[in-house]
Structure formats: C-alpha cells, structure tokens
Structure prediction request, 223 residues.
Amino acid sequence: MTVPAPARAPAPGTRFRRIGGAVSLIASGALVCASLAMIPYGNRTDAEYLQTGADHTADVLWAAVVAHYGYLLLLPAALTLVHLARRRARRIALAAMVLTGLGAGLSGLAAVDLYDVALATELPPDRALHVFEVAGGHGQAALIAVPSILGLALGTTLALAAAWWARAVPVYPVVLGAVGWGVVLVVDGDAWLPSIGTALVAVALAWAGAIVLRMRDDVWDRM
Prediction:
C-alpha cells in the first residue's frame, strides 16, 4: 500500500506575493483610467494640448502623479499574470514580461506633463508652442515614447493572454484588455475615448486581480 506524500506547505511569503499581485492588478488599471478621466484633454493640435495645461493646471499636475503610480503598478500586475502562466505558457509569459518592462518607462514620461504645464503657464502661447514642438521634434523622443507605449499595451495584453492560455483566467478579460488598448492606440485627439479604452483595460485587470485575490495560497504556489 502506497502512503501518499504529505501536501507541501506554501513557500514563505506566498500570501504576501499573491495579495500584492492582486492589489497591483486591481489598482494599476484603475489609476491609469482615473488619470485620463481627470482632464478632458483637447489635444487635436499641440496648441490645444498646451491650452488644456493652462486651463486645468492643478488637474493636470495631479493627474500626472496618479498616472505615474498607475504605470508603475502595471509592471507587478503583469508579473502576477506571468506567474500564473509560467509553467503552461512560458514563451508568451516571457514576451509579456519583457514588453511590460519596456512599458514601465511611461511612469517617467508622466513627469513631462509638469514641464508642459510650465511652458503653458509661464511663456506666451506662441513661444510655448515653439519650445514644445522643438522638444517633441527630436528623433530620440520617439525612441523612448514608442517602445514604452507599445510595450505597455502589448505586454499587458500578452500577459492576460498567457494567463488565459494557462487556464488561470477566462477569455473575457483578454478581449476587454485588447479592445481597450486598441482604442487607446488608435484614437487620436479625442477627449474621452482614451478614458473609455483604459476603463476597459481596468476592468480586465481587476477581473484577473479578483481571481488572484480569491485563490488559495497553495494553488498560487503551484502555478
């Protein structure tokens, strides 16, 4: 008669990592969405964008802080999903981890809003516009911004897809996240559609976060 081996106790710190990952999933998308909803940007032109900073100075400054922490939390959020998929979807999980790591650069780019507000409030409009266009015209700016934006969108979407492939989350959060980021990336100049897009992403991540939050420690440790 074979005696079954005793169940292995979860590794130390398992509950902390699981709950921390769940909180990052729930909070990250919510903060990014809130930061966009704080300001109805009129940004069809650079002049409109700067004028928004002059008209809603306090809102823009606080939105930059909220966005900064939202973007930062998206990295541990994605790593939580990667943990769920590390055994059954290793390649997708690895790609998601690398891309989301690149996307973490957006947390630093949020600070640029503070300088844009300074331009809009401290310089005459024509001078502020000139300096803004010169700064944005450097090719190196695209080398920072484009990988960060695409990395964040693709990385978090792939992380959700990897968790679904590993049967840790249903397919609906993957669809919501993909559609949400698609709206954010495709829509240009609209004041509210990016907020709607990030709201879909927030729901997708919070859905996954709720699953992780309800998960038993031993199940999490075996993922």
